[in-house]
Structure of glycerophosphodiester phosphodiesterase:
Amino acid sequence: MKLVILIAILLISKHSWAYDNPDPVIRENRNAEIPYLENPEGRPYVVSHRGACGTLPDHSTAAYATAYFDGTDFDEPDLQVTKDGVLFVMHNLCMKETTNIADLPQFDDRRSDVLHITNETTFKCTDDYIVNDFTWQELIDAGLKVRNRYKSRNHFYDDLYPPMRLENAIELMLELNEKSPKQGRKFKTGLYIETKAVRFYKEKRNVDIAKILYDTLEKYDLHTVEKATEKLPIFIESFEQDSLLYFKSKTDLPTVQLMTSSIEYDLDWISSYSNGVGPKHTYMFNQEGEDFNLDKPSKFVERCHELDMKVHPYVLQDDILVYSEDPIDEVKIWEAKGVDGYFTEFPQSTLNTLLYTKSQRELTLIKE
Ligand SMILES: *[C@@H]1O[C@H](CO)[C@@H](O)[C@H](O)[C@H]1NC(C)=O
């Protein structure tokens, strides 16, 4: 009798957790089967934020290939759009921080300002070079090259590599997967793609970055889970909800809602269109409801799991530690929170630690 009541309670509460999206297409795409949603290797996913940018220039081919050979599960391109509609792989709306553009005298009179604040994002460029004011070809012809964004990191490889457009990143990954396949991995190394400044582009520049991304994926036949699973696993992430709703109205590719620490989010609603969340790490430690500790599972993560969402927090930086004094401990502390994946700028050390903790777990099981 007690068991029956317990099951009934579980069923009722399970039902109350799930929030069904009112749009039937979004609902169906949200609940589609995604074989690579969870890492089958028995450890959290490693997502290389801007490639292996801890050691190489952000979003350079070198950073992506290095992350690949370090064993990353995904490389993570951010998308901007040029004046002629090319998806430009770069984090910022403007180029001074991560390129050599200020050294190209022909562009001296092309500097300007942008301040775009919405309820989800803030973008600020001051006396800078806005990606969308330039065509792709003029940047390449002028010799634009990428740089590492942190002064404290190594700059040996700055100003060597041109930026990538999304097509370059896709083709690079397809080629690496084909020519240097990883042994013993169920899935190929994928791309975890972020649409940036979606509303800025839509409202101020009249371009729909999410639509261009969808069309590009379609061009490469990567626009559904079924196609992506075999060729190149794809995640779509954004701080901007509209862009994820757009994707879920078009395709069953997995979506991840990025979360900053300064906004109130409705997790039930997010779970109606998103397969996961990408929270700032503070959500697992000291945002509301968490009692700060370094070794117990996080209530936030548990809540997301109840809502059938994966949790991929950002971002691990071995040279900017937050919760410990050792990069290995930092990885272990996040893992104890129960996360399903990590955004990291040092994929090699993150993966090595995760493989080590996994082998320790397996050893314990054998001993028992
Ligand atoms: C921000 O505003 C947009 C447009 O009004 C809305 O769709 C979205 O839900 C809002 N985001 C948050 C986090 O409240």
